Design the sequence.
């Protein structure tokens, strides 16, 4: 980028920022002159509290702020992230519909500003509390409801008074209901008539890789500490775009990709195009249908020096969480400046959208560090350290035998 282009970019960002600041000044001046208070986001909604916001000059100022803020987001956010958020935005509306159908707004209205734990919310609705928490957290990350403390939710002003039954298993999802199939999502993709959709899915996973800043995969674990010719087993590898970054950087390591046979056929095409020498020399091998068996046997097969490396998104609560993760090395990340949400709100929403998509299509889950710690403990592992990626994406969790 030339100096002139860089200056033009910064000039545009500053212009948008100035529009926002000037409009906030207009709001402040109007509120002072009228003796009114502008409604706070975390206050409960009422017609009376909205009166200051509905004045024509306040509507005009708010419109400028909304337009400038949205354009500012579009200008600074990674394009692939913007595309993902747009593609998955339906998860927000469907989540809102779900909580309304489960009468969550009415239940929370009775709870007041202190909120209610998700187990208590779910008790009278026959909704799975773990699923409901994830749905409410996505909404809270979009400033619909507030997460007062971990898994405790309350109303805010975005929500007013104006099927998610318990089910478990990747073949008992919203995807199965919509397509009237008993197949899991990946089994459905492997049908001959869905070959194009399968290739498109694999390409989208490579696109997700492009959302992560270069070098992120290299930061969370000391790959150089592994002995020459060590095998790195990528369980559920997809086409192996994550392992590709490692293979190009660490020539002393070998890689085994494990996924379904149909996925690995696409992976072979991908690797032959991107890094053919790794295939021809045998540095990268592919194994199908063993991923689940290996996951179940990892702990049983682990030696005293074995390390389990999980590279995945780590979701944060939409409220302060450091006190509950302080005993997990590296798990407590720095908090953003107030009044931003502790999980950075809209900036971090892609992971929460992905979580709901995982639940609907696969009965899967994007986990908080508390949930990761729980499954590590239950399977005989102990988290030794955590390296959080930007916005929790591509974080590294290293475990050792407990």
Sequence:
């Amino acid at each position: 980028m030339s100096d002139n282009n860089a200056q033009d970019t910064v000039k545009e960002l500053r212009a948008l920022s100035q529009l926002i600041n000037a409009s906030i000044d207009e709001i402040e001046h109007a509120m002072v002159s009228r003796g009114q208070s502008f409604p706070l986001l975390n206050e409960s909604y009422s017609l009376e509290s909205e009166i200051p916001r509905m004045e024509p000059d306040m509507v005009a100022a708010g419109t400028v702020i909304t337009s400038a803020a949205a354009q500012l987001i579009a200008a600074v956010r990674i394009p692939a992230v913007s595309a993902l958020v747009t593609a998955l935005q339906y998860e927000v509306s469907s989540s809102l519909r779900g909580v309304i159908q489960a009468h969550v707004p009415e239940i929370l209205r009775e709870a007041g500003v202190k909120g209610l734990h998700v187990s208590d919310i779910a008790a009278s609705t026959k909704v799975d509390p773990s699923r409901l928490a994830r749905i409410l957290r996505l909404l809270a990350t979009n400033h619909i409801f507030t997460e007062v403390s971990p898994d405790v939710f309350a109303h805010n002003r975005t929500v007013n008074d104006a099927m998610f039954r318990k089910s478990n298993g990747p073949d008992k999802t919203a995807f199965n209901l919509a397509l009237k199939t008993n197949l899991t999502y990946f089994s459905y993709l492997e049908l001959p008539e869905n070959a194009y959709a399968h290739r498109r899915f694999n390409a989208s996973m490579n696109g997700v890789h492009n959302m992560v800043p270069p070098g992120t995969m290299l930061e969370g674990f000391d790959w150089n500490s592994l002995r020459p010719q060590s095998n790195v087993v990528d369980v559920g590898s997809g086409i192996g775009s994550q392992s590709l970054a490692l293979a190009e950087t660490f020539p002393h390591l070998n890689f085994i990709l494990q996924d379904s046979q149909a996925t690995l056929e696409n992976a072979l095409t991908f690797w032959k195009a991107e890094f053919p020498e790794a295939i021809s020399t045998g540095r990268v091998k592919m194994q199908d249908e063993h991923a689940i068996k290996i996951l179940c046997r990892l702990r049983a097969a682990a030696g005293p020096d074995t390390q389990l490396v999980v590279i995945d998104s780590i979701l944060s609560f939409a409220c302060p969480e450091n006190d509950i993760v302080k005993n997990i090395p590296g798990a407590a990340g720095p908090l953003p400046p107030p009044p931003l949400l502790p999980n950075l709100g809209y900036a971090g929403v892609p992971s929460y959208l992905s979580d709901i998509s995982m639940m609907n299509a696969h009965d899967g889950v994007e986990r908080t560090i508390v949930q990761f710690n729980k499954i590590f403990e239950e399977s005989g592992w102990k988290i030794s350290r955590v390296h959080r990626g930007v916005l929790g994406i591509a974080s590294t969790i290293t475990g050792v035998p407990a």
In short: The first helix runs from residue 3 to 34. The first strand starts at residue 116 and ends at 117. Strands lie at 116-117, 146-149, 152-154, 231-235, 254-259, 284-288, 308-312, 381-387, 395-401.
